[in-house]
Design a protein that fits this description.
The protein contains eleven helices and ten strands. The chain has about 325 residues and is α/β, with parallel strands linked by helices.
Length: about 325
């Protein structure tokens, strides 16, 4: 019996010593990170809000981390190529991905997606939000959302809305709007936001949910009339423009967004370090000013908040897509 007690005591001492020795080693490893360049995968080609965000944040992040952050553009398949690449990457803190809203929406649009937006990633932080604006051609006899809905009901099936394509933010905004308002309108998908916007400016199509960055110059030139912003609250991006929700359609909210994810098994201390440094960069006055100038709103929240946001976006749009019967493949 004394021999057994001695053995137990020795085992307890050994395990305690192991814990004490491993703790400082883990802390030292976190402090030493990063030791080599880091790759930021970007799911779009150069140009556009996501790439602008990456190239604004990347250099500053290099400075605060003390290592080069390499921007790796991997466009294609609505971001799926980049998202799968990031999900399968070594979870060592040296690869993460800048994602768009599609990362949470794709699984509901496509029959088979090679990643799970919840299980395959460790959320770092939400970077920016990009509000959409509901615009109409100046010839449309509506100066508010209520008036547009009344017109669409009076001309059931004869008002047309353009979009950048099936399953895009503008299309899904339209489907949610139809559900909230009960209107019957025609959806006209184009191959990109540019052609869709051009057709509304030309008066070939009556209305469009457009990203603010693209629509604002046309609004200022008098070629489009802005009726509402699609965010839950009014935005500094378009000062004074009321929301769709406050014009009689509570619960209507559609925003584009971009944020950073790491592979699922990335050590929590490294995710926390990336969160801390990216949020720090987003809060820099020069970065905030440049992002606001691009008609985007900088955020920078906690990993837990971003995880909850992704799940809510996934569930919200899955319900809309299912009800509207939207499919891409």
């Amino acid at each position: 019996m004394p021999l057994l007690n001695s053995f137990v005591s020795l085992a307890f001492f050994a395990s305690t010593l192991l814990i004490l020795l491993s703790a400082p080693l883990s802390a030292h490893a976190a402090e030493a990170y990063p030791k080599r360049p880091i790759r930021m995968i970007v799911a779009v080609p150069p140009g556009g809000p996501a790439d602008i965000l990456a190239r604004l944040v990347g250099p500053k992040l290099s400075e605060v981390l003390g290592q080069t952050v390499v921007i790796d553009n991997r466009p294609g398949a609505n971001g799926i190529i980049a998202y799968e690449m990031a999900a399968r990457a070594n979870p060592d803190g040296y690869t993460f991905v800048l994602v768009a809203a599609g990362v949470a929406i794709n699984p509901s649009l496509y029959r088979k997606v090679p990643y799970d937006p919840i299980k395959d990633f460790a959320p770092i932080t939400l970077g920016i939000t990009v509000p959409n604006i509901l615009v109409v051609h100046p010839s449309v006899a509506a100066t508010s959302v209520r008036e547009l809905v009344a017109l669409a009901k009076a001309k059931s099936g004869r008002i047309a809305f353009a979009s950048a394509g099936n399953g895009t933010s503008g299309h899904l905004a339209l489907e949610l709007f139809k559900m909230k308002s009960g209107i019957d309108v025609v959806h006209v998908p184009y191959k990109g936001g540019g052609p869709a916007l051009a057709e509304v400016v030309a008066g070939q199509v009556q209305a469009l949910f457009s990203i603010a960055l693209a629509a604002t110059p046309q609004i200022e030139a008098g070629k489009l009339r802005a009726l509402a912003i699609t965010s839950a609250r009014r935005s500094p991006v378009v000062s004074g423009l009321p929301t769709v929700a406050e014009q009689g359609f509570p619960g209507f909210e559609v925003i584009g967004w971009f944020g950073w994810l790491a592979p699922a098994k990335t050590p929590p201390d490294l995710v926390a370090r990336l969160n801390r440094e990216i949020v720090r960069v987003l809060q820099m006055s020069e970065i905030r000013a440049r992002l606001l100038n691009q008609n985007t709103e900088p955020v920078g929240n906690s990993s837990r908040e971003f995880a909850a946001f992704i799940r809510s976006e996934h569930d919200k749009w899955a319900a809309v897509i299912r009800q509207a019967g939207v499919r891409i493949d």
